[in-house]
Amino acid sequence: MEDGEYTAKDITVLSGPQGIRKRPAMYIGSTGSPGFIHLLYEVIDNSVDEAVGGYCKNIRITLTRDDNCDVAEVSDDGRGIPVDIMEKEGKPALEVIMTSIHAGAKFANKVYKVSGGLHGVGLTVVNSLSEYTVVTVKKGGKVYRETFSRGAPTSGLEIIGDASAKDTGTTIKFKPDTGIFSIDSFDSIELDERLRDISFLNPGLNIIFADERGEEKKETVYKSENGMMEFLDYLRNGTEAVSRPISISKAVDSTAVSIILQYVKNYSEELVSFVNNIRTREGGSHVTGFHTAITRAITNYLGKRSGNGNGSKKPQIGVTGEDTREGLIAIVSVLMQNPEFEGQTKEKLGSINVKSIVDSVLYNGFSTFLEENPSDAGSIIEKVSAAAEARESARKARDLARKKSGFEGTVLPGKLADCTISDPEKTELFIVEGRSAAGSSKDGRDRLYQAILPLRGKVLNVEKAGMEKIFNNAELHALVTALGTGIESTFNPDKIRYSKVILLTDADVDGSHIRTLLLTFIYRYMRPLIEKGHIYVAQPPLYRVSRGKEVSYAYTDAELNALMEKYEKKAALQRYKGLGEMNPEQLWETTMDPKARVLKRITITDAQKADAIFSILMGVSVPERRKFIEEHATEVSFLDI
């Protein structure tokens, strides 16, 4: 055959499991952490679909460790996967479901009115990308089992015991194939969020998560009685309310829409959206419909009244959608048949008709609430009016800032000690507090790839500041400019100049406060940087212990006690009160050297907790602050006086 010739002999046909193993990212998004845990979600979603249909009350998820990889087991008390023979295929239905693409009961909308699994590839993908899979089904008074490896059956369907007629359900145990994935463990923090979401959206459903991977076995129960109202309280987390919660639910044809929202004394929007119990992190048509309805309802209400009888006044400037969403906490849940997601991982809803359904349901319900509750309406309008005025002030401040290089400018802040290379994949930025610490870190760093940005004192408390103050704040201005991402309408996380952004603060109360201020700002105005794994916190040592020429560092009191026992308490001890007490060499070898340092990557859960606590301690609600201090006063481990 001549070079370049293209014939039928060049065509390769791969069966379902082979094709999945050849191109796994097509089905699960990636072979890293998101794809790894997506296998578990596919199995859990099938159990949740049984619960939505009213056939399952209990789900148990168990994680164990098998040699070099986590093993997951999901068990439910639903109807059980069918085990009878499919006439056309000549195989048990269970085997067909586990080995064939686009095989399932979710296409005709008879067995499942709504479901998270749609494409008939979920369990096939899990099976194909697992070293082994064991499926056990209780059904019709019998217990059935079939085993698989990398998509292929390794046993036939067997009856392994008897069960009572009422005892039904499915258990799926699988070990992801480490030859496919770049990691080998499930993220329990992300799983915790997923299971919590499911419990809130399905009140009464009992979910048990047993983590048996370590020496200390942990078991967590997720169960909600009040559903979305509890979910709203969880998201609000003590932030002072502006209005009462507004709950709106309605079914339109085969689509059920449930929305709960509340305005609070905050400057950002907190919106979580779901389709068939799956969180749509990238939004989609249902979120677009939600935003459209909120804006339309408020602007129409304002158009009807110059005041609402409660002392509030119509804003002097035009209201935008952004203004109507400031301080809004909302949960949008849609149950529907045959939703169209953009991609198998279901991050974004693409079904066009849902936009108008959500828009109509929310607009009518929210408009009625505003008309019937003038006190709440007045508080909401005042909140929106304040947001519009702050936005206009921020625009003027932003225009001024742009003239002085601005957040979007290319001129880097003068205080930034940049690194030599410019490849964002290989560089890291240390955000350092204090002049002396900045000096040590600049001298101790590896100039090739490590940059230093010193900050003076405590940065702005964004809990009590609008955009106008943020745009005029020199420290935040320097931070945003150094990162290169812009902010607000110009924000683009892909323009970040460093792969790692490391917060390096003293290990004391002031350092913790500064770190929390920075995390709150990043969480509220640059959240994708956290979601993409760019934000870290350095862990400097608390003590230096030396005996002769031998030097060790302790990062906790427990480590210090162990070292002092080792040296029989005949060692010199130095307590670092701040980073500035370390010389450049010490700072490098303990905190900045990638081979020896300890970094904590910040997750969305970490940032949410920091933001929630900060809202209580630094917000405007004195009762909430007093309550928090009274409840946690005994937990203080050190206090500067």
What report would you give on this structure?
With 641 residues, this protein is α+β, with helices and mostly antiparallel strands. It has 4 domains: 16-222, Histidine kinase-like ATPase, C-terminal domain (Heat Shock Protein 90, 2-Layer Sandwich), CATH 3.30.565.10; 228-398, Ribosomal Protein S5, domain 2, CATH 3.30.230; 405-540 and 584-635, Rossmann fold, CATH 3.40.50.670; 543-575. The protein is built from 20 helices and 24 strands. The strands form 5 sheets. Strands 1, 2, 5, 6, 7, 8, 9, 10 and 11 form a 9-stranded mixed beta sheet that branches. Strands 12-13-16-14-15 form a 5-stranded mixed beta sheet, with helices on both faces. Strands 18-17-19-20-24 form a 5-stranded mixed beta sheet. Helix 3 (33-52) runs antiparallel to helix 5 (122-128) and helix 12 packs across helix 18 (584-592). It is globular. The N and C termini lie far apart (84 Å). Residues 104-120, 307-312 and 632-641 have low confidence and may be disordered.
